[in-house]
């Protein structure tokens, strides 16, 4: 018998679906609407603070087309009523080979809507000397 999903799981799944659909299929500037005014993004180790800076970074990424394939997503409620999301998957930019990626989001309810307050993105590339 299948268990009914918790509300935080449903909210998390909806956010992930919306985020990557917008990222892959629309003007990436629209992604800024998913972030709070004071949100923080760390993209491959570089920090960006605020909705405008985050949208600017996402728009400036150097590819014309991208496709994300989500392989796993995990969700947790936090003690301060936020939702923590961890996403694993692959992305393909333009004609490059697919690459693994990991992304973590923190969602908070603000003004009767769920917005991203924190976002950390890393490609799953391991350049370790052997």
Short synopsis of the structure:
The chain is of the alpha+beta class and 130 residues long. It is 22% helix and 45% strand.
Write the layout of secondary structure elements.
Blueprint: H1 7-25, E1 35-43, E2 46-49, H2 51-60, E3 66-77, E4 83-93, E5 99-110, E6 113-123
Parallel strand pairs: 1-6
Antiparallel strand pairs: 1-2, 3-4, 4-5, 5-6
3D structure, described in words:
With 130 residues, the chain is of the alpha+beta class. The protein has 2 helices and 6 strands. Strands 2-1-6-5-4-3 form a 6-stranded mixed sheet, covered by helices on one side. Strand 3 and strand 4 form a beta hairpin. The longest helix has 19 residues. It is globular, with a radius of gyration of 15 Å. The termini are far apart.
Strand order of the largest sheet: 2-1-6-5-4-3
Shape: globular
Q: What ranges have pLDDT less than 50 throughout 5 or more consecutive residues?
A: none
Total E-strand runs: 6
Helix percent reads: 10-25%
SSE topology string: HEEHEEEE
Number of helical segments with 4 or more residues: 2
What structural class do the secondary elements suggest? alpha+beta
Mean pLDDT: 93
Approximately how much beta-strand content do the residues carry?
Answer: over 45%
State the major sheet. Answer: 6 strands, mixed
Give Rg in angstroms: 15 Å
* Termini Cα gap: 48 Å
């Amino acid at each position: 018998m299948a268990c009914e999903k918790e509300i935080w799981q449903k909210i998390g799944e909806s956010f992930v679906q919306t985020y990557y659909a917008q990222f892959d299929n629309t003007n990436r500037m629209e992604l800024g609407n998913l972030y709070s005014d004071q949100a923080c993004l760390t993209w491959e180790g570089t920090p960006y603070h605020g909705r405008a800076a985050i949208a600017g970074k996402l728009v400036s990424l150097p590819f014309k087309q991208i496709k994300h394939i989500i392989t796993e997503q995990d969700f947790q409620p936090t003690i301060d009523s936020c939702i923590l999301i961890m996403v694993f998957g692959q992305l393909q930019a333009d004609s490059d080979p697919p690459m693994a990626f990991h992304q973590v989001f923190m969602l908070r309810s603000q003004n009767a809507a769920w917005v991203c307050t924190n976002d950390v993105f890393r490609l799953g590339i391991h350049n370790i000397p052997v």
